[in-house]
Design goal:
The complex is a heterodimer. Chain A has 29 helices and 22 strands. By secondary structure, chain A is of the alpha+beta class. Chain B is mainly alpha-helical. Classes of the chains: A alpha+beta, B mainly alpha.
């Protein structure tokens, strides 16, 4: 008999039965199943009986047993909304502190969510203004050079693809070819303007929606030497005069303005100031290579189809074309494929890309950060609601006695939390407007990338976010309340086991603080690393050096004029600025061994000006003319790579190496320095001499008053070059900009950390207030019995402190390992992670939490026990 | 009208209800059917037939008292309603009429 009682039917099956079965049929059906079950236990054993039971439950799922949807139930919800609103409002007003904590927390966290939503919406609405967006495709390229192992993926392609794709794929509706890198100085009357433009063929304006304000779309780019300006460019060049039909001189060639296009919308991956007809290229271009299959570096081809197509179905035809054309190339293989225009932004980075490229992972990270913050605020709501459940359990009890069902109570509390979330949305929208302005100001690239405009779509998403947040926040409390047993609460509300849920609540607090600590530690470590990058000893000095882009001006002339400024201590010329991430490679041969080394071409002042350290030898001695150079200076890595003179710097002097067919004598060996950023290892670098290297002037200034000196430099520049703006920047600032992404990330993470800490602290504060309030009587009695104040504070604090300690123990090692094993492995050279600073960050958070806990418990402990106990 | 005629299995179930008198509930009906017909009667089938009979108004049901068996769930007892009795008698009459019309098959003779 006892054995029989032990065997019970599977609980899930019974639950399932309860869920679907009509109430009228349920009882006897369950009874029947039980009877059979008991019989089967006797005959076939418990295990088989359970299986049969489960199968039977599923078998009984038939039309006549399934519960009808109770429209009446939904109807009741509808009627009761008024009542829910009323009780929610009352409860909000009655507990001002808790309401405030909840609304502030949700508002702050959702404002981050709103920002992320508008960012992501912007990414996804790129090129939406294009009428043919859904059926336009870009031809992209994959290429593999002979002797290399990894292929290169390019957004650009060859002109030939654009010419042959119609033959290969008859279904194509239209093709357009564009080419970057038209640049020149435009002369309009007496004035001169620098112009960067894009070559585009006649189909361009048909495929893309860039409407012409003036001119004819069908012919604007047809004839050679036609020029289509955007409204903005036209205004700059011609002011209010009519530009259409005007002839302008670009360098030596004459162009006719054939159209004025409306300014390009912000969210467009194609951007141009002006278009030049593609036929111009064939007229002037001497490069016979232009139409070759291998010329894949700066041309872009777009095709449209009559309808949406699957790129995979087109691919075989493109592959045939690639195979056929690859036969003509000896050293290179090129494959082309189609990419939908809608996917360009989110496709991650391709080389030679036009417009912004967003790695999908960025979107995930942004979404993840917002989610963490919002969840943290939801935890506050959940925690405080459950903790306060005792005070509202009677209301629920009465509702249940009057006839509310579980689902009604569930609905009520979810509705309440959604209402609160919507209320918070109003505040968070205001916060979002502030945040948006800050975010757009964070980096000068951001306004070019995003507009963050509010549209109908984003508003809907905002409301959706608030609703979902409300549901998440209110779910656990709602479930909790719906399970309340009406009779038990009515008899004695305190018998409700609110502290049974303490495990969940503790876990939520620990999660919140762990996340906050991870963020703060990440910020601190990131910041020290970033500062470390800026102050890193690069192997040469960058102090007070201003790098000026020459923009085609005569370097010697500008240098001569600048040297008149008293504050200028020295001027050198170079081909490029090192340590900023840009690199310039060239081949070097030594005794039959050859490899790529990094190159900078400089004049004789460069090395002393930057204080490069010589291990052996000295600066360039000869001052040869162009093409007659014979000296080279290398770094130690070159000796190591080619094993020149057994890596002995002194003996390496006088050795001869071959760079691009020219024999050069090593006259100096430099101590290793950072040519690339700190992400890269130090590699072989050579310096070649030129009296007039292009591109940059490096000006060392000794002035205390730097802005005034810069102003002087500007005056000199404006005298020499009236067309181009001065581009002069401090070396240190350039280095800072090279790590700008890093600094932006720190700002974002720091901000998130700040929010996370605020929200977690708010929640902790609420919990402490609640606990001390409920324990007030206990405290008073203890006090009467002789407990000391410090003892009481300790008693109240220790639970919370333990939680904080646990979070610290999880968070700090996690952050350390994340930085040590994941993030900083990207950087070959970095500072060690400073433990003291990391602990310092955590300590501040702990201190804040401790102050919160301490102040409240102190208040409770100082209460006069007589007053508390009297009132009862 | 939907349920004017009795199906064969419906008739059997209804007869069983009648024969079980006051002890007619689903499991007992299943057992009884198995005993009489010799073939197994699945609870699922019987349950849906009982439900249909009640819908047609041929049977009535009431819940019994709770017992400690069956997990404390009450049994639903069935009895044949007036229309049910009429339908059973009618079915029997039809059969007998047809039997009688079979020539050379004398019921009174030995089999």
């Amino acid at each position: 008999m006892k054995q029989k009682e032990k065997a019970t039917p599977p609980r899930w099956a019974t639950r399932f039965l309860h869920w679907y079965c009509r109430p009228r049929l349920l009882e006897d059906l369950e009874g029947d199943l039980n009877e059979y079950f008991e019989r089967n236990v006797q005959q076939k054993g418990a295990r088989k009986a359970r299986l049969i039971y489960a199968i039977d439950v599923i078998k009984f799922l038939r039309p006549y047993t399934i519960r009808k949807i109770e429209f009446f139930n939904i109807f009741i919800h509808w009627i009761m909304i008024g009542s829910y609103l009323k009780t929610s409002r009352r409860s909000l007003v009655r507990n001002k502190l808790f309401s405030l904590i909840n609304i502030i927390g949700l508002a702050v966290s959702m404002s981050v969510g709103l920002l992320v939503i508008s960012i992501v919406t912007d990414f996804y609405s790129y090129d939406d203004f294009q009428g043919k967006k859904n059926r336009t495709y870009r031809v992209i390229t994959k290429t593999l050079e002979k002797g290399q192992t990894s292929d290169l993926k390019l957004a650009s392609t060859s002109v030939e693809v654009g010419e042959k794709i119609r033959e290969a794929i008859p279904a194509v509706e239209d093709v357009t070819i564009i080419r970057r890198e038209f640049s020149g100085d435009v002369k309009v009357g007496d004035a001169t303007f620098p112009l960067q433009a894009t070559y585009a063929d006649n189909s361009f304006l048909k495929i893309f929606t860039f409407p012409l304000l003036k001119g004819d779309v069908t012919t604007a780019l047809k004839n050679p030497n036609s020029l289509v300006l955007t409204e903005k460019t036209a205004k700059k060049m011609f002011g209010n005069a009519e530009p259409l039909g005007k002839a302008v001189q670009v360098d030596t060639v004459s162009f006719v303005v054939t159209g004025v296009a409306k300014d390009i919308p912000a969210l467009s991956h194609i951007d141009f100031d002006a278009l030049v007809s593609f036929s111009t290229l064939d007229g002037n271009h001497t490069d016979s290579d232009l139409h070759s299959w291998a010329n894949i570096w700066s041309n872009y081809v777009y095709v449209t189809f009559p309808g949406k197509v699957d790129p995979a179905t087109i691919q075989p035809a493109l592959d045939r074309l690639s195979v056929q054309e690859n036969k003509t190339l000896p050293n290179r293989k090129v494959w082309v494929s189609l990419q939908p225009v809608g996917e360009i932004i989110m496709a991650g980075s391709l080389s030679n890309n036009v417009g912004p490229a967003v790695d999908p992972i960025t979107v995930w990270i942004l979404g993840g950060l917002a989610l963490v913050i919002i969840l943290s605020a939801c935890f506050n709501y959940t925690n405080l609601s459950i903790a306060r459940s005792m005070r509202r359990s009677r209301e629920v009890g009465i509702r249940k006695i009057i006839g509310a069902q579980k689902s009604h109570v569930l609905g009520q509390f979810i509705a309440e939390s959604v209402i609160i979330a919507l209320l918070a949305l109003v505040f968070s929208f205001a916060l979002f407007l502030v945040l948006r302005k800050q975010f757009l100001g964070l980096d000068k690239n951001i306004p070019e990338l995003l507009t963050l405009d509010i549209s109908f779509k984003t508003i809907i998403l905002f409301i959706l976010l608030a609703a979902v947040t409300g549901i998440i926040a209110g779910f656990l409390p709602a479930v909790f309340f719906s399970k309340i047993n009406a009779l038990v609460v009515m008899k004695d509300a305190s018998s409700l086991k609110i502290f049974r849920r303490i495990g969940i609540r503790k876990a939520l607090i620990v999660t919140q603080f762990t996340l906050s600590l991870i963020f703060i530690a990440a910020t601190v470590v990131g910041y020290t690393q970033y500062k470390g990058f800026l102050s890193f000893d690069l192997g040469f000095t960058t102090d007070n050096i201003v790098n000026i882009k020459l923009k085609g001006n005569n370097g010697a002339l500008v240098a001569k004029e600048l040297s008149q400024i008293p504050a200028v201590k020295g001027i050198s010329k170079s081909m490029m600025v090192t340590s900023l991430g840009s690199i310039h490679g060239t081949g070097l041969k030594y005794h039959g061994d050859s490899a790529v080394v990094w190159l900078n071409t400089v004049d004789e002042h460069y090395l002393p000006l930057h204080d490069h350290k010589f291990v052996a030898g000295k600066n360039f001695q000869l001052r040869p003319g162009k093409g007659k150079e014979s000296e080279i200076i290398v770094n130690q890595q070159v000796l190591k790579r080619f094993n020149i003179a057994n890596r002995n710097a002194e003996k390496a002097l006088g050795e001869i190496v071959d760079v691009g067919g020219i024999k050069l004598v090593i006259v100096g060996v430099l101590k290793d320095f950072h040519y690339g950023t700190l992400e890269n290892k130090i590699e072989p670098v050579i310096f070649r001499y030129s009296a007039e290297p292009e591109s940059f002037l490096n000006v060392k200034i000794a002035s205390k008053d730097l802005p005034a000196t810069l102003a002087n430099i500007k005056t000199v520049w404006q005298k020499l070059d009236k067309v181009h703006e001065l581009d002069a920047r401090f070396y240190d600032e350039q280095i800072e900009a090279a790590y700008g992404q890093f600094s932006m990330m720190i700002k974002v993470i720091g901000f998130i950390a700040f929010l996370a800490i605020c929200i977690a602290s708010l929640g902790l504060f609420g919990m402490v207030v609640f606990t001390t309030e409920t324990k007030l009587k206990e405290i008073s009695i203890r006090k009467v019995l002789g407990a000391s104040e410090t003892g009481l504070v300790f008693l109240l604090c220790k639970g919370f402190l333990a939680l904080l300690l646990i979070s610290a123990l999880i968070a700090l090692p996690a952050t350390y390992f994340f930085f040590d094993k994941v993030l900083l492995t990207r950087f070959v050279y970095h500072q060690p992670i400073s433990l003291t600073e990391m602990l310092g960050g955590a300590f501040i958070v702990m201190l804040l939490a401790f102050l919160l806990i301490g102040s409240q418990t102190m208040k409770a402990a100082r209460n006069n026990p007589a007053k508390v106990l009297k009132s009862d | 009208m939907k349920g004017a005629n009795l199906g064969e299995f419906e008739e059997l179930v209804l007869l069983t209800i009648a024969s079980l008198a006051s002890e007619a509930y689903s499991v007992a009906i299943c057992d009884e059917l198995e005993k009489f017909s010799g073939r197994s009667a699945k609870l699922g089938v019987v349950h849906s037939v009982l439900n249909r009979l009640e819908e047609k108004g041929l049977a009535k049901s009431r819940l019994g008292d709770a017992t400690s068996t069956r997990g404390g769930k009450r049994k639903r007892y069935y009895e044949v309603s007036h229309t049910g009795k009429v339908a059973l008698l009618k079915a029997k009459e039809i059969r007998e009429n047809i039997w009688r019309n079979i020539p050379g098959f004398n019921l009174e003779g030995s089999i």
